[in-house]
Amino acid sequence: MSACSQTAAAWSRCLVVFSELRRAGLRPDLASFQCLARACGHGGHWRGALQILVAMREQRIVDSGDVVRSAVAWACEASVEPMSRNVTTARGARKEQKEDALLDFLRQNAATGDLDGAIAAFERFVRECQWLKVAGGQKARLLENSVHPGDRVVEFGTYMGYSALVVARRLRALGGGGRVISCEVDANAAEIARAVILWAGAQHEIDVRIGCAFDWIASGQLGLIDLLVLDHRGERYHTDLQAVEHQLSCRARIFADNVLHPGAPLFLAYIKDRFHTRIHEVKEFLHTPPIDDWVVICTPLSGQRSTQQPLPPEMRRWSAKVDAICQGSQQRTVDWHGFQQDFKRAMYDWNPPGIFAASPRHRSDSGRRS
């Protein structure tokens, strides 16, 4: 069903498979309903997607992670019918404690419509109240320097909208113009981000869209892209970049966060010899204890977009290790620093020294040599 749910041409096949499962007496799980909702979205069948939520309620199936609601929300937003854009789905029962607290803090400590004040309050919340994984500090400066006047920016991974606000502020400083489309797979997070952006007064410059990157790429509704910001799941960076390459403008830049923490080894393998690459070694913003991360900024090499090389088994193994420690971190405390030393050494060996923005001595001190 997953494969059938990813294109407009195959969406009806997904419905057939779902019906066959029901006739066979199999009880659909959340993943099945999610695929069905995505299939409806690709087929423009947004009313059918809404009926999925009704069917789940009737069968007393709890959408504990709101994954189905998020997929249904995408199906409605991606529809070409104007009426579907006004359809809302009730927010799930899952409580976003830190994220809701951020929105309350923002409203108490920044004036409405004050973009600079909202960004400052955002950073103050992370510093004084609760840590959130946002691209502040060194990362924010690198992101601002990547923005050009009038850029058409697409971001995969909105979270709370911090990076989108930073980009909007930079576009204003460069004279206005441009726009930001930011895609967030989690409907709850997207709705909080929209409220944050509205409070900051940047709602006319930033369009937050619910849904996964791949689905929005397949919809053909992202338009031409000057700056692509990758800040969602590192294991998806290379596949989503490959899918969207035909929509990159002749002056396109790619800004990829979290390439070392938690890590995106397949992305590093994919861009090697196909993109002009610069790796910036930074600290995770206000993380305690301090931990390293990499920001990758790259541009396509002329004539290289259509070529594709097999991804090395070594990098696939590292991708599996990154995925395993990420999964483990949701259930227990993991040794990120210990893992990162081995991971970093392997990534140093994979990448030529000349693509690092740091000096050779700094790289050596960071763990390249034991």
UniProtKB/TrEMBL annotation:
What name is this protein filed under?
A: catechol O-methyltransferase
Protein source organism: Polarella glacialis (Dinoflagellate)
Entry's Gene Ontology BP terms: catecholamine metabolic process; methylation
Keywords (alphabetical) are:
Catecholamine metabolism, Methyltransferase, S-adenosyl-L-methionine, Transferase
PROSITE patterns xref list: SAM_OMT_I (PS51682)
Pfam families attached here?
Methyltransf_3
Give the record's family classification: Belongs to the class I-like SAM-binding methyltransferase superfamily. Cation-dependent O-methyltransferase family.
GO MF annotation terms: catechol O-methyltransferase activity
Q: What is its EC number?
A: 2.1.1.6
Major enzyme class: transferase
CDD domains assigned to the protein according to its UniProt record, in alphabetical order: AdoMet_MTases (cd02440)
What SUPFAM superfamilies does the record tag this protein with? S-adenosyl-L-methionine-dependent methyltransferases
Does the record carry S-adenosyl-L-methionine as a key word? yes
